């Protein structure tokens, strides 16, 4: 009976299961975005330097990026829920520790950093594992639709986080730390009750065999997989970089701050979030369409950033920026679908987690690099970013083909499999890239 219930999840997604999965990536998003509005207050209340305050964001991001592949392997070795639920608990504990330190200890900075480190470790077991879990539970067009929802949930969290952080800070600045465990508790309950995984039919591979299989995957599918990784990281790098730039412009030039600034920043994020969901619900398993949308998305990013270098009017700036948000919303769900389908279930956790790690590095370097470019030249900054997105779009056009890595893993199983793989790649990649 239990197996029959799980199979129903695979073929016909339950709304409660989808909501539970969608709640998981929301947690990773909240980790930095909710904290940003309170950083100036934290700096003054605790008498910190700008560098010390920035470390509360950097520590979270770097720890998450380091632990994502580790937890990805563990999710393949054991189960997705066996990683997700402890990770969510650790995330909540880190928030409680940071909040109690700020409330009760005269000099709480060191303990706040410990809490943020724990939160980074916990965040590593959220969004990337949720992507792998989606690939496990759903097939065909349902998989793409739920992956679109996962990306939309991530974007929705980015929309709400600065606004929620600003509202909570009206009560007490460190109240944000206590908000984390409340949100986490909801996700833990939903995950525990409504996500049912298939039982593993065989013993998972040992580490040596597992690593050997991964080398086989990247040997045969490495060019397009790494291009897909680069494309996803570029989308997040430019998104967070441009938001950093816009936040600075709103405050320094237009004198807009607080909740109103959060609402303005939410506009491009809301466009990206909505586009991600619609894209995920429409693409199904049509990999040719996915590739076209990825290339179209990067073309929109390139045009948008090139035009922004010459625009100063705020309303027009937001309108043109919306083009890049549309491009990001078209691109990310397609890349997610390509990557989750790249390998079999036994290695999916690591491959999607490595993708999540690369995305996190993109988020981490976006604001500081954009800040450096802003000091150099506004026009130079936008044209440089437009050049980057144009280059990545070209790489996507010629290298992303969506050939299944499972075929690479099965090398040597017969000429029929090799012919089938070549035929699939030829059909998916009329431009000639392998």
Kindly describe this structure.
With 434 residues, this protein is mainly α. It folds into two domains: 1-194, Growth Hormone, Chain: A; 204-434, Up-down Bundle (Growth Hormone, Chain: A), CATH 1.20.1250. Helices cover 83% and strands 0% of the residues. The protein is built from 17 helices and no strands. The protein has helices spanning 2-11, 15-33, 39-46, 50-77, 80-104, 109-123, 127-137, 140-169, 175-194, 207-252, 258-283, 287-308, 314-340, 345-376, 378-399, 405-409, 415-428. Helix 11 crosses helix 13. It is globular. The N and C termini lie far apart (44 Å). Mean pLDDT is 80; it is low at 1-11 and 403-434.
SSE class:
mainly alpha
Enumerate how many helices there are, as a single number.
Answer: 17
Total discrete domains: 2
Q: So, the CATH homologous superfamily of the largest domain?
A: MFS general substrate transporter like domains
Strand percent estimate:
under 5%
């Amino acid at each position: 009976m239990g197996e029959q219930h799980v199979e129903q999840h695979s073929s016909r997604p339950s709304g409660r299961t989808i909501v539970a999965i969608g709640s998981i990536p929301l947690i990773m998003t909240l980790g930095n975005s909710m904290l940003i509005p309170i950083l100036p207050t934290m700096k003054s209340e605790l008498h910190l330097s700008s560098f010390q305050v920035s470390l509360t964001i950097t520590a979270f991001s770097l720890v998450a990026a380091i632990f994502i592949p580790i937890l990805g392997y563990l999710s393949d070795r054991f189960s997705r829920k066996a990683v997700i639920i402890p990770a969510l608990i650790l995330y909540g504990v880190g928030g409680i520790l940071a909040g109690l330190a700020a409330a009760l200890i005269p000099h709480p900075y060191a303990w706040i950093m410990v809490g943020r480190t724990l939160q980074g470790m916990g965040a590593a077991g959220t969004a990337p594992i949720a992507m792998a879990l989606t690939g496990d539970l759903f097939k065909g067009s349902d998989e793409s639709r739920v992956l679109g929802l996962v990306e939309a949930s991530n974007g929705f969290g980015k929309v709400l986080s600065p606004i929620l952080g600003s509202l909570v800070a009206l009560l007490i600045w460190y109240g944000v730390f206590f908000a984390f465990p409340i949100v986490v508790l909801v996700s833990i309950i939903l995950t525990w009750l409504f996500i049912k995984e298939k039982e593993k039919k065989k013993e998972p591979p040992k580490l040596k065999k597992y690593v050997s299989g991964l080398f086989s995957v990247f040997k045969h599918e490495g060019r397009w997989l790494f291009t897909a990784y680069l494309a996803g990281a570029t989308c997040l790098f430019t998104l967070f970089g441009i938001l950093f730039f816009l936040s600075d412009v709103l405050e320094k030039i237009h004198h807009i701050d607080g909740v109103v600034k959060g609402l303005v920043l939410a506009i491009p994020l809301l466009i990206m979030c909505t586009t991600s969901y619609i894209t995920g619900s429409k693409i199904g398993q049509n990999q040719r369409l996915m590739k076209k949308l990825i290339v179209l998305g990067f073309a929109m990013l390139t045009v948008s950033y090139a035009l922004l270098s010459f625009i100063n009017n705020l309303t027009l700036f937001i309108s043109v920026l919306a083009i890049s948000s549309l491009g990001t919303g078209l691109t990310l769900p397609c890349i997610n679908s390509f990557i989750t389908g790249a390998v079999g279930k036994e290695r999916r956790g690591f491959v999607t987690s490595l993708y999540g790690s690369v995305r996190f590095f993109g988020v981490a370097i976006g604001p500081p690099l954009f800040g450096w470019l802003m000091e150099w030249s506004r026009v130079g900054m936008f044209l440089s970013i437009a050049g980057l997105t144009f280059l990545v779009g070209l790489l996507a056009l010629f290298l992303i083909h969506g050939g299944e890595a499972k075929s690479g893993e099965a090398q040597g199983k017969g000429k029929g499999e090799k012919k089938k793989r070549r035929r699939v790649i030829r059909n998916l990649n009329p431009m000639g890239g392998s």
